[in-house]
């Protein structure tokens, strides 16, 4: 019966090296059992090497008790092991310990017993839970602010986003319960200590469910992460912290859909600049884009209502992040990069017309409009910059499917023009492969499709426009 230890739930924390060892320790089992183990090891590694098709929505990795969608598991091992450049201000393995409080944890003065309710009283919101040290000045100096949102297990992408962006960032964080909240407190502390641009320019907002207090509580003192902090490895650091979540919290996450549209609205409204660039947390902007974009928006004039699309590419985890559009083009030629979702769901970005974007002149430095989207398609889901008067993200959509593209669709019906900018771009790590959707995603997608029919008739009535797409 020893072999039953290999049940999928024991893989929940995706602690691969240790888990692999413990599996091999089971080898004295009978040969049939060995075969079974080898098979499950194989399946496990297959799932690890070919992770489930990633969705565009940063917070959507819903914890599953099956191996198919393990929470907090990095999509790509290579990314885990690729060190970030060591920050100038390095934080050498020390940790904020309660008894020797040399560094206090973030969200120190936040009382989660009260907060702003969402419209359905399902979530409490703490706007501006931690404000970047230079957020006010930075927001005044920049015409664009990046708004993003994340569940706790995906937050490791933020350092690279902040590193490339170098401007104001408004980040909405979801915390299912006390355990996730503790993880967030440690990890945001770590982010602020390790990454100067996070400390200076990132402002965090928190959203917690009404049931927050019914989820397990951990004592802060029991959280010992000594020597686990490493500024070069945010993903590893976060993974170590995520182990504090118990099965009960993970089960709650599995049963409850992630409120990504609530999160997007919170992040958007936390921006103080004229323009907002709403992304998901794993969408990495090209290097120094905020300076280039500020130049462009200083003189940008728009007839009517405009949204400025920043094209998104997926890049092979073995590649180095492209420093310029020309290096991105070189990666595409080598097959190490391609338009986001090209192989998984082409309509996601198709209307952007990458052919035209890639044809534009070489060695561009100044941002300009490459072309206007002429063939808008239903389910088009670009990341765009716009004045934050664009329609809100409808909070009836939660979980997977119809969350972002429904908002873009409303913009289209409302008469927005989509202008594609060059040479700025964004990247997502990992080439996506087409695979069967896990059952939970299919369910959430179907539930949202039904809501979408209602949504569609509402917006046709509101704008007196039915584009018959
Ligand atoms: C607290 O931490 C500081 C700096 O790491 C150290 O010098 C000091 O000895 C510590 N104090 C106690 C009481 O542990
Ligand atoms: C914060 O953003 C401003 C632009 O708004 C930028 O000039 C500054 O370098 C950023 N700070 C850090 C530490 O990256
Ligand atoms: C994209 O642009 C190319 C080059 O201008 C054009 O030939 C093609 O028809 C466009 N594709 C779509 C779908 O509009
Ligand atoms: C772009 O600029 C670089 C360096 O300035 C130069 O070596 C390269 O030939 C240029 N490429 C094109 C296509 O003009």
Summary, kept brief:
It contains 15 helices and 14 strands. It is α/β, with parallel strands linked by helices and about 475 residues long.
What is the topology?
Layout: H1 16-24, H2 31-49, H3 77-81, E1 116-117, E2 123-130, H4 135-141, E3 144-151, H5 158-165, E4 169-174, H6 178-194, H7 196-201, E5 202-209, H8 234-242, H9 247-255, H10 260-270, E6 275-278, E7 284-285, H11 289-299, E8 306-310, E9 312-315, H12 325-333, E10 337-339, H13 354-359, E11 368-372, E12 383-387, H14 405-413, E13 417-422, E14 426-429, H15 439-463
Parallel strand pairs: 3-4, 3-6, 4-5, 8-13, 9-14
Antiparallel strand pairs: 1-2, 2-5, 6-12, 7-14, 8-12, 9-10, 11-13
The structure holds 2-acetamido-2-deoxy-beta-D-glucopyranose (4 copies).
One 2-acetamido-2-deoxy-beta-D-glucopyranose binds next to loops.
Overall description:
The protein folds into three domains: 2-49, no CATH class; 63-275, no CATH class; 283-469, no CATH class. It contains 15 helices and 14 strands. It has helices at 16-24, 31-49, 77-81, 135-141, 158-165, 178-194, 196-201, 234-242, 247-255, 260-270, 289-299, 325-333, 354-359, 405-413, 439-463; strands at residues 116-117, 123-130, 144-151, 169-174, 202-209, 275-278, 284-285, 306-310, 312-315, 337-339, 368-372, 383-387, 417-422, 426-429. It has a ten-stranded mixed beta sheet with strand order 1-2-5-4-3-6-12-8-13-11. Helix 6 runs antiparallel to helix 8 (234-242). The protein is globular. It starts with 15 loop residues before the first helix and ends in a 6-residue tail after the last helix. The relative contact order is 0.13. Mean pLDDT is 78; it is low at 1-32 and 44-102. Residues 134, 138, 141-142, 166-168, 196-197, 200-201 line the site of one 2-acetamido-2-deoxy-beta-D-glucopyranose.
């Amino acid at each position: 019966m020893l072999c039953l230890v290999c049940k999928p739930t024991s893989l929940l924390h995706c602690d691969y090296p240790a888990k692999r060892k413990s599996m091999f320790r089971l080898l004295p089992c009978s040969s049939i059992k060995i075969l079974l183990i080898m098979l499950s090891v194989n399946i496990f590694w297959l799932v690890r090497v070919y992770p489930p098709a990633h969705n565009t929505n940063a917070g959507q990795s819903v914890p599953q008790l099956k191996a198919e969608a393990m929470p907090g598991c990095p999509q790509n091992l290579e990314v885990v092991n690729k060190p970030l450049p060591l920050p100038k201000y390095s934080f050498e393995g020390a940790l904020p310990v309660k008894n020797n409080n040399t560094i206090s944890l973030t969200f120190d003065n936040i009382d989660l017993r009260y907060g702003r309710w969402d419209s359905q009283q399902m979530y409490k919101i703490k706007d501006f839970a931690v404000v970047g040290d230079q957020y006010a000045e930075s927001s005044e100096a920049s015409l664009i602010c990046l708004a993003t949102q994340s569940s706790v297990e995906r937050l490791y992408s933020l350092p690279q986003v902040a590193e490339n962006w170098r401007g104001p960032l408004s980040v909405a964080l979801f915390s299912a319960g006390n355990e996730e909240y503790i993880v967030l407190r440690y990890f945001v502390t770590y982010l602020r200590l390790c990454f100067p641009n996070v400390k200076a320019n990132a402002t965090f907002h928190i959203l917690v469910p009404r049931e927050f207090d019914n989820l397990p509580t951990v004592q802060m003192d029991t959280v010992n992460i000594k020597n686990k902090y490493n500024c070069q490895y945010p993903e590893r650091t976060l993974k170590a912290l995520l182990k504090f979540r118990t099965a009960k919290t993970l089960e709650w996450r599995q049963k409850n859909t992630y409120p990504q549209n609530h999160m997007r609205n919170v992040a958007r409204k936390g921006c103080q600049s004229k323009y907002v660039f709403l992304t998901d947390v794993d969408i990495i902007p090209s290097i120094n884009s905020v300076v280039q974009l500020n130049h462009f928006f200083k003189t940008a004039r728009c007839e009517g209502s405009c949204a400025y699309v920043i094209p998104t590419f997926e890049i092979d985890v073995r590649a180095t992040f492209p420093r310029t559009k020309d290096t991105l083009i070189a990666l595409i030629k080598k097959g190490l990069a391609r338009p986001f979702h090209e192989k998984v769901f082409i309509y996601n970005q198709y209307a952007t017309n990458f052919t035209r974007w890639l044809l534009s002149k070489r060695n561009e430095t100044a941002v300009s409009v490459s072309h206007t989207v002429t063939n808008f398609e239903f389910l088009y889901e670009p990341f765009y910059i716009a004045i934050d008067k664009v329609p809100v993200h409808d909070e009836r959509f939660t979980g997977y499917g119809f969350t972002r593209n429904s908002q873009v669709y409303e913009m289209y019906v409302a008469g927005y023009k989509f202008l594609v900018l060059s040479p700025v771009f964004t990247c997502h790590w990992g080439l996506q492969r087409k695979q069967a959707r896990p059952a939970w995603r299919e369910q959430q997608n179907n539930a949202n499709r039904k809501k979408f029919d209602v949504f569609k008739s509402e917006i046709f009535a509101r704008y007196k426009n039915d584009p018959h797409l």
